[in-house]
């Protein structure tokens, strides 16, 4: 029995002379749920329909995918077969495909208690056409920590190690960039910093494209990596930090949300923030004059943690299975645009 039914019982409790009976029954049902990370007591698997596969990726959603491989979530089924619309418990809509094929959205929910999830990993700056979805979605699934279903680009997981191996360094600073626009903040900072220090630039926007298998081995040769986000938003901390820098074994020089926001996810001594310096000349001097002992200290976190990337869409969608028992059924976002564009006032370092 799902949390939707629990909510209904609680509402009945406030209206009926049998309120105490209903409340106690609801409490007993709630106590029968396994906490997040396991499956709830259900007669059949939780079914999740992926309306459009993100970026047309072939996810090979064959049966109980969340109970196999590295997902290990029993009682949860993913499918992209739209004929399941009338029986799916949850329907997930990835925004990129949604905004391109708006007419293909189902007219209404086909099953009582069915919940619709809006999914996106893009920042508000790069997300368009939100105004037309008022009152459409029950839950949001994004990189924001205040999402109903939080899907970060990466996390640090506990991992004790006596020895930390740092890749051998032969170069100083590099940047990998696919889409370069001169008006972006990151482009402005790069131009200013490059006046004071040599920066090797790779990627589609440069004359040095990298094959996927070449990315990490190339970056690992550098002491510092410019993990500059394409836009600055609450919690918008992408693979530029997690994969390109931390996983590659180099020190990230970050440009994105304030330092305090980064420190909610990684230790403060694991990165350098551009806002720690009064100018790009000061930052360049800091990078050029750092001694070996100071450099090694930026890797102390690796004695306690290791990097886990969330770059697999199967795994991301299986996160719904974990969160489902604790999600509020019947909730609706009156304005998706208001929620996504108006970030929380408590953004670290903000007003």
UniProtKB/TrEMBL annotation:
<keyword id="KW-1133">Transmembrane helix</keyword>
<keyword id="KW-0325">Glycoprotein</keyword>
<dbReference type="InterPro" id="IPR001503">
    <property type="entry name" value="Glyco_trans_10"/>
</dbReference>
<keyword id="KW-0812">Transmembrane</keyword>
<dbReference type="InterPro" id="IPR055270">
    <property type="entry name" value="Glyco_tran_10_C"/>
</dbReference>
<keyword id="KW-0328">Glycosyltransferase</keyword>
<keyword id="KW-0735">Signal-anchor</keyword>
<keyword id="KW-0808">Transferase</keyword>
<keyword id="KW-0472">Membrane</keyword>
<dbReference type="InterPro" id="IPR031481">
    <property type="entry name" value="Glyco_tran_10_N"/>
</dbReference>
<comment type="similarity">
    <text>Belongs to the glycosyltransferase 10 family.</text>
</comment>
<protein>
    <recommendedName>
        <fullName>Fucosyltransferase</fullName>
        <ecNumber>2.4.1.-</ecNumber>
    </recommendedName>
</protein>
<dbReference type="Pfam" id="PF00852">
    <property type="entry name" value="Glyco_transf_10"/>
</dbReference>
<dbReference type="Pfam" id="PF17039">
    <property type="entry name" value="Glyco_tran_10_N"/>
</dbReference>
<keyword id="KW-0333">Golgi apparatus</keyword>
<comment type="pathway">
    <text>Protein modification; protein glycosylation.</text>
</comment>
<dbReference type="InterPro" id="IPR038577">
    <property type="entry name" value="GT10-like_C_sf"/>
</dbReference>
<feature type="domain" description="Fucosyltransferase C-terminal">
    <location>
        <begin position="167"/>
        <end position="339"/>
    </location>
</feature>
<feature type="domain" description="Fucosyltransferase N-terminal">
    <location>
        <begin position="45"/>
        <end position="154"/>
    </location>
</feature>
């Amino acid at each position: 029995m799902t949390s939707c039914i629990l909510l209904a019982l609680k509402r009945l409790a406030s209206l009926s002379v049998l309120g105490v009976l209903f409340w106690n029954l609801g409490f007993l049902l709630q106590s029968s749920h396994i906490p997040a990370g396991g499956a709830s007591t259900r007669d059949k698997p939780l079914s999740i329909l992926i309306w459009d596969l993100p970026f047309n990726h072939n996810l090979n959603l064959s049966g109980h995918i969340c109970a196999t491989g590295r997902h290990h979530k029993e009682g949860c089924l993913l499918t992209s077969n739209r004929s399941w619309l009338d029986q799916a418990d949850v329907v997930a809509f990835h925004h990129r495909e949604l905004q391109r094929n708006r007419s293909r959205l189902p007219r209404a929910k086909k099953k009582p208690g069915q919940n619709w999830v809006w999914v996106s990993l893009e920042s508000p700056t790069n997300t368009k056409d939100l105004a037309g979805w008022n009152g459409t979605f029950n839950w949001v699934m994004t990189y924001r920590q205040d999402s109903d279903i939080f899907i970060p680009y990466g996390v640090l997981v506990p991992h004790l190690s006596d020895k930390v191996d740092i890749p051998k360094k032969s170069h100083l600073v590099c940047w990998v960039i696919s889409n370069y626009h001169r008006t972006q903040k990151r482009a402005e900072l790069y131009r200013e910093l490059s006046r004071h220090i040599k920066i090797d630039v790779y990627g589609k926007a440069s004359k040095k494209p990298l094959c996927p298998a070449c990315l990490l081995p190339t970056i690992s040769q550098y002491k510092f990596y410019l993990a500059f986000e394409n836009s600055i938003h609450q919690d918008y901390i992408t693979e530029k930090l997690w994969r390109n820098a931390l996983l590659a074994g180099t020190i990230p020089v970050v440009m994105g949300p304030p330092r305090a926001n980064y420190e909610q996810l990684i230790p403060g001594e694991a990165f350098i923030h551009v806002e720690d310096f009064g100018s790009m000349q000061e930052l360049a001097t800091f990078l050029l004059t750092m001694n070996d002992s100071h450099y090694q200290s930026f890797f102390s976190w690796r004695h306690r943690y290791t990097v886990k990337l969330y770059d697999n869409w199967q795994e991301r969608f299986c996160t719904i299975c974990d969160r489902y028992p604790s999600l509020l059924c019947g909730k609706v976002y009156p304005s998706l645009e208001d929620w996504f564009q108006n970030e929380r006032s408590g953004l670290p370092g903000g007003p």
